[in-house]
Amino acid sequence: MNAAVAPGRQVAVRVPATSANLGPGFDTLGLALSVYDELIVESLPEGMLEVHVEGEGAADVPRDGSNLVVKSIAYAFESVGRRMPGLRLRAHNVIPHGRGMGSSGAAVVSGLLAAKGLLEGDAEFGPDTLLRLATELEGHPDNVAPALFGGLTIAWVDELGPQHKKLLVHRGVAPLVFVPEFTMSTEVARSLQPLQVPREDAVFNVSRSALLIAALTQSPELLLAATEDKLHQNYRASAMPDTDQLVRTLRAAGFAAVVSGAGPSVLVLADGPGRRLEAAALAQQAVDTPWEALMLAVDFKGGTVRDHTEGST
Q1: CA distance 257 to 251
Q2: Do 139 and 251 sit in the same domain of this protein?
């Protein structure tokens, strides 16, 4: 392999939270949200590794080579035949861990963007390459596409590999995320789904997914009908009854509430800021479980990386 990056180079990375599925768009649709993990990565002499973490997951995130950001950086370097330098990582995590807001996808994307920045001028990482590497590491393109590119993303895989299409979200859509104190394993959530579903349920979700694209980009008043789902949420409900109760309570009151990713957070796609406030008030009154209400915006930029080396412009 070619020589590693010289010590002293620094890059700053910023990656948004995401919510995947959005109800009917299982393993296909994702939305970038205005909560961000930030990371400064500095190249050190080969063999050295320092990992500093503050914020979400600070007590649990590995400080060695098993750290997901470190693994993603190493994967990117290996993909272009470069030796990885030593690293100093300083991470400020805000995205909740284990709550269906894309923390693992954000870590993967953070590592890939850090590698892109460290190798700038020596190796190129275009959008297609980044999506491919992120999908290989994370497993599903719908979880990493919005973190990479921002906005509303449609992700799919064809003979050329993972693909995506980014769409702009109607300015009337006001996201609200309810985050609980408890967590949920994505692997456990997926294990509760059957390998086959009734044909009528598949047709139902195809129609709602198509409608959801229209609702998010043109007609927010259709969001309640557009977020109905029969493929995954009902099967997972028994594993997170408090999440299921909140979703049902909000939907019964006319709010487009869905499980965020694999859960247990709940995403509400409100039709305007006023409706978002109403949803937050209803949740506070109607359920006993404490939920943190995050009133967010759609992130349209996706992950970013910039040179942070001292003296750089």
Answers
A1: 6
A2: no
CB 141 within 8 A of CB 155: yes
Residues 151 and 216: their CA atoms lie apart, in Å, by 11
Give the side-chain half-sphere CA count within 13 A for 81: 3
Residue set of the binding site: 96-106
Provide the pLDDT for residue 313: 45
Instruction: Check: CB of residue 258 under 8 Å from CB of residue 243.
Output: no
pTM of the full structure: 0.94
Parent domain of 124: 9-167+299-307
Summarize the annotated binding site for ATP as residue ranges.
96-106
Q: Please check whether residue 217 is in contact with residue 168, taking contact to mean a CB–CB distance below 8 angstroms.
A: yes
Residue 196 pLDDT class (50, 70, 90 cuts) = confident
CATH number at residue 51: 3.30.230.10
What distance in Å separates the CA atoms of residue 12 and residue 97, rounded to the nearest whole number?
Answer: 21
Same domain, 39 and 62: yes
* CA gap 289, 299 in Å, rounded: 28
